[in-house]
Amino acid sequence: MTRVLVTGGAGFIGSHLCRSLLENGNEVICLDNFFTGRRQNVSDLFTNPNFELIRHDITEPILLEVDEIYHLACPASPVHYQFNPVKTIKTSVMGTINMLGLAKRVKAKVLLASTSEVYGDPLEHPQKESYWGNVNPIGERSCYDEGKRVAETLVMDYHRQHRLDVKIVRIFNTYGPRMLLDDGRVVSNFIVQALRGEPLTIYGDGSQTRSFCFVDDLVRGFELMMKGTDFTGPVNLGNPVEMTMLELADLIREIIGSKSTIEHRPLPSDDPTRRRPDISLAGERLGWSPEVDIRDGLSKTIEEFKTRV
Ligand code: NAD
Ligand code: UDP
What we know:
Blueprint: E1 3-7, H1 12-23, E2 27-32, E3 51-55, E4 68-71, H2 78-81, H3 85-106, E5 109-115, H4 142-162, E6 166-171, E7 174-175, H5 186-196, E8 200-203, E9 209-211, E10 213-214, H6 215-227, E11 235-237, E12 242-244, H7 245-256, E13 262-265, H8 280-286, H9 294-306
Parallel strand pairs: 1-2, 1-4, 2-3, 4-5, 5-6, 6-11, 7-10, 8-13
Antiparallel strand pairs: 9-12
Helix pairs in contact: 1-6, 3-4, 5-7, 7-9
The structure holds nicotinamide-adenine-dinucleotide and uridine-5'-diphosphate.
Nicotinamide-adenine-dinucleotide (NAD) binds at residues 8, 10-14, 32-37, 57-59, 72-76, 91, 95, 113, 115, 171, 173-174.
């Protein structure tokens, strides 16, 4: 049985990944400091003898015996990663060094959950993996963007210097059940607001675009990437269906049947104008493409949110 470590496993994506890995016959160690993760996200797994939850902060080293590491620990929503920016960058830099050190000692494979934010406010559209990005090094998003860029560098240096088996996945905006209600990201904000009949908060004029991927599709891509041999990536994983924030607000209001109005708020600094993944590499190397349509994915997400709002 493969023993798998999932850092950030009690978070949104991590909890879906833990569940899928267990279903696919792995032993899972979930490691989390509960900054944005919750025990409740994985509490249904506690009775599974192949599941173990450890409270640990990855900025501190840890000794474990594992075969594979999915390294996700890092706050992902701007509200959370800007709450303590120095801690965010420590998590990406020191945390990644600790996980790579662990992998080196036990000869484990490592998959880094990187982000489309490494492309910054992109000057190329859609974004291919070969694009180096347009990132502000000193802005309010930099603790996250530059942290992930350094994490990618570390992963590739461990690969070249220590022959570590590594994989880099660049995740584009992902949504689904179990996102925190107060997560601050656009999908969870709009769903909560529409369900409560409150105005939907659109930052700026709402013409900025994103491309949203359902979490099940992403998790399938993660596992395919880990299985692959001789392919380090980076590889984009996301859904190329691009929409404006105004279109997203309309779609969510329509699915819920909500009469919520729209309220415009100031656009946060360095907010990328548009974002859409080019996923041809994932298609070629992993045979992966998303299967869940945004309307179906949002409907599933909304049903789960209704049990909590
Ligand atoms: P999340 O905030 O729900 O999950 C992050 C998890 O990491 C949480 O459980 C949190 O408690 C844990 N964590 C944070 N700092 C830690 C530390 N120092 N030590 C141990 N655990 C720590 O976010 P998510 O959406 O599930 O994101 C997971 C990963 O995917 C992150 O690395 C994020 O950067 C990346 N990502 C997510 C998206 C997205 O759209 N959701 C997009 C791009 C990249
Ligand atoms: N956004 C918005 N209203 C909200 C939250 C976010 O209009 O209540 C916008 C935000 O300015 C950005 C887009 O939605 O342009 C996606 O934001 P999110 O924080 O979800 O992800 P990211 O900016 O990291 O892609």
